[in-house]
Amino acid sequence: MCGIVGHVGPLNSINPAGAPGSGRSLEVLLDGLSRLEYRGYDSAGIALVRPDDGERLTVVKAAGKLDNLRAALDEAGPAPATAGIGHTRWATHGGPTTENAHPHRAGTLAVVHNGIIENFRALRAEVEEAGRTLLSATDTEVVAHLLDLDFSARLAAGEAGTVGPDAAAALLVESMRAVTDRLEGTFALLAVTELAPGAIIAARRSSPLVIGLGEGENFLGSDVAAFVAFTTHAAEVDDDQVLLLTADAVTVWDAAGNVVTPNTWEVSWDASAAVKGGYETFMDKEIHDQPTAVADTLLGRVNDRGELVLDEMRIDPAVLRSIDKIIVVACGTAAYAGHVAKYAIEHWCRIPVEIELAHEFRYRDPIVSEKTLTVAISQSGETMDTIHAVRHAREQGSRALAIVNTYGSTIAREADAVLYTHAGPEVAVASTKAFISQITACYLLGLYLAQLRGNKWPDEVADYLENLGKMPAKIERLLAEQEDMVRELGEQLADQTSFLFLGRHVGYPVALEGALKLKEVAYVHAEGFAAGELKHGPIALVEEGLPVFVIVPTPRRPVLHDKVISNIQEVRARGARTIVIAEEGDEAVTPFADTVIRIPAAPTLMWPLLTVVPLQIFAAALAKARGLDVDQPRNLAKSVTVE
Ligand code: M6R
């Protein structure tokens, strides 16, 4: 939650003929913020520093979306800057007002922050006692003043007026260390001071922060999207590290104060992957990215001998053979992907799989041992609840495998092994392609374990892989054939106030996901149920005209299929409007369906990769018909980095 971005270019840069990267901090920050806006959009702001004699530190901020900040900047017309920091906010401490927007200014410096400072009340009292007047309700402003108090004291201890920019930057590094040592909670903090206009000082604990390494300029961001338009060379930041960035150097100190060399990598996403590419919304674009997301997640997983290989699987095969339980920890859509995984992995590997919402996991004293494999699923790799669940599982001796989309993210780095989904950047808050690629990665994991543990013969694994390989084309065809009809349906039903989603077996998590999509983008009451559960209570909700989506399993599995047909009849008999998602050629559904959405045939366990697609399209269409912003739904942020 919250996105932060930093840029520092050369000091000689203000003149237009300056070095590359010169004077363009504002441009970089606005580009970065527009790419990070999915992390929070309650307010936005920037602080710019420049080395000349005029106004050396400029802070501009505005409540609401980034466009409001752009308008405020047009009015303020700030001069070109050598360094700057920016922030897009998802409010925690204090409402979404301009006063509470970041950056927060204190003395000569300005600060942006992602995270929550848990001991901020005591620190606020201390700062006020020191004579500071706070203008906002935020924990961040307290940190800005603590930093400035410490920094001012260090400056005063030197010879008055003789501290040059380099010395000022070095002193602010010391202040950052001293202040962050006192903070409880989570933070990624960036600070600039007008006394060091060619520097950004930063620190991190449990909130995401990555470095972008440029040519004669350097960057910071909550994730690589912040700077991917300018550099694809990135470096990791670990917990409790303090950083000093200048145009041509990045210095990183560890918790003990030693200079360390960060791990670096090349970002494989290019900036164009994070633009709408002709679609009306990111959600539309990402729905259409899904065939590629599945194909890319499957890419390069089979060796010359036809065996499934997971190169990233750094867990000893002997350990994987010995595990007697898998616990999936995840939140929201990622947890529903885990729910699908349970059906596949238990069936293929005969290992019990439990699904835990990550935020419940560590508080209920779960039974975890060295024989447990914990699988953490997360698009962002930064969901705080999931990070804590991974840490808790590892403390109990479990190995943790991460299924993550974002390279270099905290969960990817803390887990024992990572299976990357290759969905590319997902910008819309509502997860679509991440869900589908997470399920795909779970299938790969299940098949890999089945191969390793001898639960499936090589030709059986090869058959499943062949079927998986056909899924991208099937999703493509489904989009081509059904999208218009499903969109129209969404528009027709835009005035409905309640929806039910029913499914059995792997259709059940898809029903949950269909309901979540509608809730989060269209703000409509929607519930997903296991179809068999209906008669145990939820059927009381059914009344004349209530739209009920039913995901029908293939008729090739008559035990499941026939039961779901009975469930459709039960709700229809009570007046429901039935919208049935069924396999092509399944005519048994026709008499009981008001609308049928036809899906290409696929193996039962792989059915979610197809059946969820119309539910995503429907939610987006209905939300748009209601005039809503589907990419940035109210109250939400893409990445939930607070507990
Ligand atoms: O980044 P993560 O996959 O860990 O995020 C988990 C959930 O917050 C996320 O899936 C959320 O439920 C989606 N916005 C739903 O569309």
Notes on the protein architecture:
It is a single chain. With 643 residues, this protein is an alpha/beta fold. 37% of the residues lie in helices and 21% in strands. The radius of gyration is 26 Å and the shape is globular. The protein binds 5-amino-5-deoxy-1-O-phosphono-D-mannitol. The site of 5-amino-5-deoxy-1-O-phosphono-D-mannitol has 16 residues, from helix 9 and helix 16.
- Uncertain segments: 15-20
Subunit organisation of the chains: single chain
Summarize model confidence as the mean pLDDT: 91
Number of H/I helices: 18
Beta-strand segment tally: 25
Please identify the structural class as seen in this structure.
Answer: alpha/beta
